[in-house]
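COMPLEX REQUEST
Ligand: MD3
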Amino acid sequence: TSPAPGAVHVPGWLTVGEQRELVDCCRAWATGPVPLRHTRLPRGGVMSVRTVCLGWHWQPYRYTRTAEDVNGSQVAPMPGWLAGLGRRALVDAYEDTTAGEGYVPDTALINFYDDQARMGMHQDKDERSAAPVVSLSIGDSCVFRFGNTENRGQPYTDVELASGDLFVFGGSSRFAYHGVPRVRPGTGDPRTGLRAGRLNLTLRMTGLTD
Ligand code: MD3
Ligand code: FE
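STATUS: Structure written out below.
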């Protein structure tokens, strides 16, 4: 189902087995060279989600290879198999066997939401590429607020994102405001191995080179 041009929601795209494998990987990445952390914002705020990055380290509002804002370490690499999952996501979402061609996501941002975590309305503008963003959700459901490209307010559409859901943001939706106003505690599937909270992986092409 498509709430806007280029935006496609595919409920239940990941199998429970794939979700469990991703949860295991995320646990390892969360304790990797740059551990899961609450991102500090330049004006003194702290994000309520906890994030770990692969390939490039995102800090507001730029991508770096080393995490000066955490511990100065080099981020873990973006695995080739995860980029491949992103290509398969585009093929399935756009129902076009060629949709993944040239899609080589070089970063993954992994956000962990506890019951209280939220993400305010924002645009993702730090990439130098208009390639689609692939979003994978695991664990508790959330309300995902999908807005417009003009401002953080209305008009917007609220969509429920559940465990296993794929969302692809391409075309004009790539630069739409979006956020997560609430998580729904206790709605996850224990078979994924995630006992509480919500995990979201976004795969992106940064358009950056070293
Ligand atoms: C629409 N993450 O990491 S995923 C983010 O669930 C982010 O953790 C949310 O927003 C989360 O920046 C939402 C869906 C998403 C991700 C990136 C987008 C939607 C997007 C980029 C452009 C447009
Ligand atoms: Fe975002």
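REMARKS: The mean pLDDT is 97. The CA atoms of residues 137 and 200 lie 5 Å apart.
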